[in-house]
Please model this.
Amino acid sequence: MSELPDRQAINAIIEGHYADPFSLLGMHQTGNKLEVRALLPDATEVWVIETSTGRKCAQLKCLDSRGFFHGVIPRRKNPFRYQLAVTWHGEQNLIDDAYRFGPLLQELDSWLLAEGTHLRPYETLGAHAEVIDGINGTRFSVWAPNARRVSVVGDFNYWDGRRHPMRFRREIGVWELFVPAARTGQLYKFEVVDNKGQLRLKSDPFAFESQMRPDSASVICGLPEKVVMREDRKAANAFDAPISIYEVHLGSWRRHADNNFWLSYKELEEQLIPYVKEMGFTHIELMPINEHPFDGSWGYQPVGMYAPTRRYGTRDEFRHFVAAAHAAGLNVILDWVPGHFPSDDFGLAQFDGTALYEHEDPREGFHQDWNTLIYNYGRREVSNYLAGNALYWVERFGIDSLRVDAVASMIYRDYSRPQGEWVPNHFGGRENLEAIDFIRYTNRMLGNTAPGAVTIAEESTDFHGVSRPLEMGGLGFWYKWNLGWMHDTLDYMKLDPVYRSHHHHLMTFGMLYNYTENFVLPLSHDEVVHGKRSILDRMPGDAWQKFANLRAYYAWMWAFPGKKLLFMGGEFAQGREWNHDASLDWHLLEGEDNWHHGVQRLVRDLNFIYRHHAPMHQCDFEGSGFEWLVVDDYENSVFIFARRDREGNEIIVASNFTPVPRTNYRFGINQPGGWREIINTDSVHYHGSNAGNGGVVWSDPLPSHNREHSLMLTLPPLATIWLVREAE
Model:
């Protein structure tokens, strides 16, 4: 005797409120009978077909006009592989029943996901093309432990949530379903009936490709192949390597002149990569390319952590862009934002009706500065989602480094919050202990799993040991942005030279803490927006002085200990603030040779000389690599120091930050002999006044500055010079 489903169960599954569809749909043994149940809205006739023979076994009866079918298979007791011949609108279709396939998640994957230690959760969760029992389809999995029902909807089922409700794996809170015939390129989302009974349509958190805003569907897309990190790429990230980073916003580096539209990944590959290589940079840093709904966030409010934005092309075109950068000898740094996410309803916010990825308490879970939500790092599944994402970009795209955004906002519970509007940790302190654990875990995991790839922290406080190893109590980053150096030196440079003597310490203070971290010296996008003006426009004086100051400052920066970072446009002294909706001002380089060309040539020369001479980069983080030769000439605003490599070779750097030439300026040196000028920012080649030392200057056996030998130089106005010792 068949066991017909009761009317209540039929109503529940048709209305989309049945939590366990596999208990009702598909093939079931009931006593001595074998019966098949199917939910096929709008179907008029349904037959069960034995796959191996193609024979019709039984016609299913329509028990509910809304599309619920049921039938007993005569003379069969044991389950077998079957298909359904379904007639819709007079046309018969042969389909595979999604409810004849067993559980999908493997035991080990389930264990690791529950534990929050799955190295590659993206290989299990999300949408994956698969062949099961010889049937091509897509395996869907999504974490939503508090949902009442989850269906996958998309191009393959008319976006009808009744057609493919998913199996709930209660032990780990994951919903799963294999959908036959769902194929690469089709759009999909998850339809969630949340814990309050509200219907939500959610993008896949693990989608490998997504639609471009304002659309927000996920795209079925295969997992990219792994990219092996070559030894030369590993070496280029090393502490003793020359690292000069060109920071880029892909949407505004250059645009089409006719319609102001973005360049594609392919066009950027053809134009941007050769330019960066020609300019002598070693690394290109991309502001976030994760899919994001709001252009004005510059990518720093991502919703598609696993999906490169479609603004510039497909996922595979972005992979090709990265490969082209590697072929050109450039390493690629990706800005990575694990600190917060936007509250758009199609994203992670209230994913299953609860604060699943975020905190319930807005004092912990809402970011007041950016109107975004803060990840709940104490939830294992959330930290695993993010840590897996870090490895995903490194392994699957060949990203060489992740620059982690806004680390301070992650590690402090009171970040940008007044007293009483934040929740202390369980020790009563202000540190976000769960975020710190997440950061340490991620850095350790990358170091062990992807050796050679590095992380860089944008951390704006003096938190101890940001770029120190975990065993020393550090956070485990390889590098940290030196925002203190950036603020101090820009504050100095914006002063009229007549006042600089009173603020001499702003240029020297950085050396007092230089060896506490492994620093990158950043002149980033943050310094050329929101009314701060361009770097050029912050320089004092008339046009000649502005450009002279900028050139002197760049040569100072490239010589100072620490890796270098310059935001796009800075290399040719763009005069206006950066605008993400427009191209850089490339027209400044049109026509006759001018001051902008001069700055561009200088940056190119600084990069190539910096890379060629080991004293300028090899011992950035070793005390032996730097020595002040003149540190206290406040009155003349003169600074002179030596950079040194491990072989003891030196380069002398001298800066005069006043418009007054300093002739016959004598100072003590360590190594007597001839010294040749290899950089002079006042050179006519850079549109300076061409004061300088004209080749080789020989030392004298005259004591100065507590040294037995000395040099006498001409220090050009508002200029920095580099000198290298002539071979004997």
